């Protein structure tokens, strides 16, 4: 059996990285993974840690460990029960690990405990790996009910003396457990004088949420208080509880009887749990915020610059985050749908959301775009490149600066005179490729020229790929952007210089030019030219260069697979009258390749005839990959736009997407063959090898978004102020961007081979 793995365990350490506690994380050394499961409701992980015993993790968040679980279980149970005069019937919502039930049964007044948990997997797994917590679930006083807590409460009004909600954090389905309708159900399910206790989040992180919980519960219960405990493996080492009573005047901080056999709880700890540190007390009782303000939050002045960001792709967020680091900037994020813009803007300081359509020809939508752009100092255009010219035309009218990450198109060049007349800066090509590649090309070329050397050869290749451990499909590739765009790019023609001669490659032949490309022994890359490299001899001021090629990196085996798809017609955009809903994949493939029938053996024979594989091994590899795609199957084909390329895209978008917990790789390398004044030669390299964070940004998003954000700030600061169409092809533009990029820890590694 293959060893167990989990996306949150890397290099032997579990990492609890979560947007609910941004900028901090809990890590635990892992001895071994014990259990991994996708239940009907959540991701379930159990591992043995080096210092905390067995650990239960749900959806990437620590629920309990053998070492410290007692502080949470004891306090969430004993605070409501010890302050109740006579609790007999107790309901526990959640808590399938059994820890709360164990503590409830320490009260000799209790006659029955009902555990209601929606996920049987938690109970089952806890019995196996956390028996010290779950063993009392078999006690005759305990009833275990697998089901929805909301429904159970609605069906059992005026029944329980105490209800304890051991919930996860307020995201996803659990968010409803922190809202008024849930607390109304809790109140109605209590007997007169009954108590509740619910997980109440952390003072250090969630003061605003706690404030809302207090407001909600005090509107429904005569008495409601926040109390807390300490626990090392919960965020910031502290967790709280909302404790409430239906009995007016009840002192929840006063225990009425001792609780035996505890490790954390005692009568004095019970009383002290309601005594909050001053920053928490003042915020929750008086609305005064005593928390220190630092960094961007320390300023009280209003932002002086207004930035509009158009687009909602993956690169938009790291760009937006960089822009709002500066408290002088106010950001508006605009997408076609307001919902997408709001999702991006959530949690960003000085940021609002709007709905704008940068590509619409509708007069009203165009007017709205022009008005919005005119109201800002700068617009970042991260929409598809075909819409940049429309955005720039609006910016010319509004005299608003523009930054894009795309290549300068002929449509943008045509606007240059108008751009200069408007007095605005339109900065382009400042992402990764193009962008970061320019910065280090110009740096090395200028340094070589300054020493009297010549660039005889310039090779630059970049690839956005799945990390090696995630490249688990026949193409060794996954889509981080439009599958359609990625496939169409494989049909682009290319031109480059080799030994002083221009080489032109037609799109249909592009994959045939791919050759092995060595960067390090760890990778089996192939490389092929991308677009037109010839003008870069002029752009980079290297007239002496005999070879100039810029291209794309893929893993070995990719080009041959694409060549097969081209030979079979699956990258064809022509509409096919016969391509209609209801066809199976085998029938589609039969029609596409001209096979006599749709039997797999017939299709395979025809594929071999068309593709002319060089050997039996390659034939087996690619035909196995075509089977993996499903081209010979009886499954219905997801026909899209009556053409083969878009229909294939519909299939690959599902098969070749990044799964939760996977990461990408960006590999970029410049290779300069240099001839010095004395005739000696050197090979210089500048290399980027960057990996995405499964719970954070992809490497591609980071290395496109952050350079774009840096350029935005430099335009706002007036560092780049010359009106016109600009790109990072000169030292004057490249150096300031590169210096800031390196300060962010995002530079390239330069070597002499």
Give an overview of the whole structure.
With 753 residues, the protein is α/β, with parallel strands linked by helices. The protein contains 25 helices and 29 strands. Helix 10 runs parallel beside helix 24. The mean pLDDT is 94.
In short:
The chain has 753 residues and is of the alpha/beta class. It is built from 25 helices and 29 strands.
Our estimate of the beta-strand percent is 25-35%
How much helical structure, as a percent, in the residues? 25-40%
Mean pLDDT: 94
Which structural class should the secondary elements be placed in? alpha/beta
Shape: globular
The radius of gyration computed from the alpha-carbon positions, rounded to a whole number of angstroms, is 31 Å
The counted number of beta strands is 29
Query: Count of helical segments?
Result: 25
CA distance, first residue to last residue: 43 Å
- Low-confidence stretches are none
Major sheet: order of its strands?
Answer: 9-8-7-10-11-13-12
Q: Could you give a short account of the major beta sheet?
A: 7 strands, mixed
């Amino acid at each position: 059996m293959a060893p167990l793995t989990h996306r949150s365990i890397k290099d032997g350490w579990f990492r609890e990285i979560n947007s609910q506690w941004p900028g901090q994380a809990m890590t635990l050394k892992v001895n071994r993974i014990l259990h991994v499961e996708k239940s009907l409701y959540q991701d379930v992980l159990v591992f043995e840690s080096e210092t905390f015993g067995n650990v239960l993790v749900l959806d990437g968040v620590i629920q309990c460990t053998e070492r410290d679980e007692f502080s949470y279980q004891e306090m969430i149970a004993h605070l409501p029960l010890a302050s109740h005069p006579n609790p007999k019937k107790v309901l526990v919502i959640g808590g399938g690990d059994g820890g709360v039930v164990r503590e409830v049964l320490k009260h000799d007044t209790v006659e029955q405990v009902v555990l209601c948990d929606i996920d049987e997997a938690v109970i089952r797994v806890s019995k196996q790996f956390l028996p010290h917590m779950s063993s009392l679930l078999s006690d005759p006083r305990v009833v275990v009910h697998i089901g929805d807590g909301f429904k159970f409460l609605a069906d059992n009004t005026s029944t329980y003396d105490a209800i304890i909600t051991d919930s996860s954090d307020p995201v996803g389905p659990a968010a409803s457990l922190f809202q008024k309708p849930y607390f109304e159900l809790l109140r109605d399910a209590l007997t007169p004088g009954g108590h509740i206790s619910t997980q109440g989040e952390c003072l250090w992180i969630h003061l605003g949420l706690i404030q809302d919980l207090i407001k909600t519960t005090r509107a429904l219960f005569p008495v409601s208080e926040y109390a807390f405990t300490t626990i090392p493996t919960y965020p910031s080492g502290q967790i709280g509880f909302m404790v409430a009573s239906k009995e007016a005047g009840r002192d929840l901080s006063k225990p009425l009887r001792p609780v035996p056999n505890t490790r954390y709880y005692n009568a004095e700890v019970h009383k002290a749990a309601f005594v909050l540190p001053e920053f928490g007390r003042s915020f929750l009782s008086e609305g005064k915020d005593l928390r220190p303000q630092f960094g961007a939050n320390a300023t009280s002045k209003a932002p002086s610059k207004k930035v509009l960001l158009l687009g909602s792709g993956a690169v938009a967020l790291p760009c937006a985050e960089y822009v709002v680091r500066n408290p002088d900037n106010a950001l508006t994020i605009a997408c076609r749908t307001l919902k997408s813009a709001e999702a991006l803007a959530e949690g960003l300081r000085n940021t609002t959301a709007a709905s704008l359509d940068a590509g619409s020809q509708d007069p009203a939508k165009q007017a709205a775009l022009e008005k919005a752009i005119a109201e800002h100092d700068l617009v970042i255009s991260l929409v598809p490149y075909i819409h940049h010219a429309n955005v720039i035309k609006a910016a010319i009218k509004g005299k608003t600066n523009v930054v894009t990450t795309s290549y300068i198109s002929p449509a943008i060049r045509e606007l240059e005179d108008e751009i200069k007349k408007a007095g605005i800066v339109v900065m382009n090509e400042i992402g990764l490729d193009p962008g970061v590649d320019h910065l280090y090309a110009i740096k090395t070329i200028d340094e070589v020229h300054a020493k009297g050397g010549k660039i005889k050869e310039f090779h630059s290749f970049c690839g956005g790929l799945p990390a090696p451990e995630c490249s688990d499909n026949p193409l060794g590739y996954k889509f981080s952007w439009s599958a359609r765009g990625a496939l169409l790019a494989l049909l682009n023609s290319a031109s480059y210089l080799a030994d002083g001669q221009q080489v032109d490659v037609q799109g249909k032949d592009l994959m045939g030019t791919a050759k092995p490309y060595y960067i390090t022994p760890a990778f089996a890359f192939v490389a092929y030219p991308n677009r037109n490299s010839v003008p870069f001899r002029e752009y980079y001021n290297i007239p002496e260069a005999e070879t100039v090629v810029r291209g794309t990196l893929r893993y070995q085996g990719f080009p041959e697979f694409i060549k097969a798809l081209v030979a079979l017609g699956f990258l064809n955009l022509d509409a096919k009258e016969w391509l209609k809903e209801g066809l199976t994949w085998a029938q589609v493939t039969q029609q596409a390749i001209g096979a006599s029938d749709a039997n797999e053996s017939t299709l395979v024979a025809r594929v071999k005839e068309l593709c002319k594989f060089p050997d039996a091994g390659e034939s087996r590899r690619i035909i196995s990959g075509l089977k993996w795609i499903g081209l010979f199957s009886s499954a219905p084909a997801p026909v899209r736009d009556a053409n083969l390329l878009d229909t294939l895209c519909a299939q690959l978008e599902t098969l070749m997407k990044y799964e939760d917990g996977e990461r990408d790789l960006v590999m970029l390398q410049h290779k300069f063959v240099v001839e010095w004044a004395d005739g000696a030669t050197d090979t210089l390299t500048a290399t980027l090898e960057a990996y995405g964070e499964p719970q954070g940004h992809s490497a591609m998003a980071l290395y496109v978004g952050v350079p774009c954000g840096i350029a935005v700030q430099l335009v706002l600061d007036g560092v780049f102020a010359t009106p016109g169409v600009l790109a990072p092809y000169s030292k004057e533009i490249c150096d300031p961007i590169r210096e800031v990029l390196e300060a962010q820890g995002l530079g390239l590694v330069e070597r002499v081979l």
